[in-house]
Specification:
Structural class: alpha/beta
Largest sheet: 5 strands, parallel
Number of strands: 11
Radius of gyration: 22 Å
Helix content: 25-40%
Strand order of the largest sheet: 9-8-7-10-11
Distance between the termini: 36 Å
Length: 287
C-alpha cells in the first residue's frame, strides 16, 4: 500500500542527472491526470517488488505527437531514501523518514494520505550548487553524470519567486543587468537560442557572439531587429580572453551546446570554462 508519496518536477530535460536538476514541488507543469497516473504507477511498482519502506523513482514523460495521452515510463527505481527526502518533507510538512521507519518496523503505521491532492498557496524549488572552479579544466556541461556538490532550496508564492530566491542563494551568482553584454554560443539548430534573444532583447542588453555563424543565426531568426557583434575570441590565451570579456562588459553567457566538448580548443568548451573561471553566470538550460 502506498502510504505517502511526493511528485516533484524537473526543469531540465531527461538526460541531466537528477542531482544536477532543478526540482519543483508541487509541480506546475503536470495536470491532475498525469499526477493520478504517476501515483498509480508508484503503487504498482511497490506491489510488484513487495517494497516495505522508502523508495524513489524517476519517470520520463514524452508527449504524443498525435495529441494523445503522454507516455510515462519508469527509467529508474531505487529501494532507498533519496537526497530529496528532507526537501519534500519540509515542503509538504510531513516527515517521510519517520513514516518510512514506522513502515519498516511495522509499528504505528499511519493511514494512507494523498499529500499531492492538497492545494497549497506556495511552492518550493531545489537548485544545484556547482564547484567548477575547484576542478581545473573540467567542462561545465550537464549530462548523465552528477556534477553538483551542493544544493539550495527556497519557498515562494509562485515558481518565479521560489526559483529566483534559490538562484540568489547560490555562491557567486550575479544577474546580468540591462545594458551589459551577453555572449551567445552553442548549437544553431536549437530554436531556443533565438527565443532567448527575443525574450531578453527588450531589457536593453548588448549581444555578442564568438563567430559569424552565431551572429547570422541570431539576427536572421530573432523576431525583432537585433544587432549581434562578433568579438575576438582567443582560445589559447586566457589573459587575452579575460580582457575581451572586460572590454565588452560581458556579464552573462548563454551556451546551448548539444554535447560535451572533445578537445580543449572547442569553442563552446572555451566559452563555458572561462565563463566559470571569470565568475560570469553561465546559462545552459533554455527553460
Amino acid at each position: 500500500q502506498l502510504i505517502v508519496h511526493a511528485i516533484s518536477e524537473h526543469v531540465e530535460p531527461a538526460g541531466v542527472h537528477s542531482g544536477d536538476a532543478t526540482l519543483v514541488l508541487p509541480p506546475v507543469g503536470l495536470d491532475e491526470r498525469i499526477l493520478a497516473r504517476i501515483k498509480e504507477i508508484a503503487g504498482k511498482v511497490a506491489k510488484a517488488w513487495n517494497i516495505t519502506g522508502p523508495f524513489n523513482m524517476q519517470i520520463i514523460k514524452a508527449n504524443d505527437a498525435s495529441g494523445g495521452e503522454p507516455a510515462l515510463k519508469v527509467i529508474e527505481c531505487n529501494l532507498r531514501a533519496s537526497r530529496s527526502f528532507p526537501f519534500i518533507s519540509k515542503v509538504l510538512g510531513t516527515n517521510f523518514i519517520d513514516i518510512a521507519t514506522k513502515a519498516l518496523v511495522g509499528r504505528d503505521v499511519p493511514e494512507a494520505v494523498d499529500l499531492m491532492a492538497q492545494k497549497r498557496d506556495y511552492l518550493a524549488t531545489k537548485v544545484p550548487q556547482f564547484s567548477w572552479t575547484r576542478l581545473a579544466g573540467a567542462d561545465p556541461f550537464l549530462g548523465v553524470e552528477m556534477s553538483s556538490t551542493g544544493e539550495m532550496a527556497c519557498f515562494g508564492k509562485d515558481l518565479i519567486e521560489a526559483y529566483w530566491t534559490s538562484m540568489q542563494s547560490t555562491m557567486n551568482f550575479r544577474m546580468p543587468e540591462p545594458g551589459e553584454g551577453l555572449l551567445f554560443g552553442g548549437d544553431t539548430t536549437k530554436p531556443e537560442l533565438a527565443a532567448i534573444v527575443d525574450y531578453v532583447q527588450p531589457l536593453g542588453y548588448k549581444f555578442y557572439a564568438a563567430n559569424p555563424t552565431i551572429k547570422e543565426h541570431l539576427e536572421s531568426t530573432a523576431k525583432n531587429d537585433i544587432t549581434v557583434e562578433v568579438i575576438e575570441f582567443p582560445k589559447t590565451d586566457k589573459r587575452l580572453l579575460r580582457e575581451k570579456f572586460q572590454k565588452h562588459d560581458i556579464r552573462g553567457v548563454f551556451n546551448l551546446a548539444s554535447r560535451r566538448a572533445k578537445t580543449l580548443l572547442d569553442e563552446d568548451y572555451v566559452m563555458r570554462r572561462n565563463a566559470v573561471d571569470f565568475g560570469v553566470p553561465l546559462f545552459m538550460e533554455p527553460k
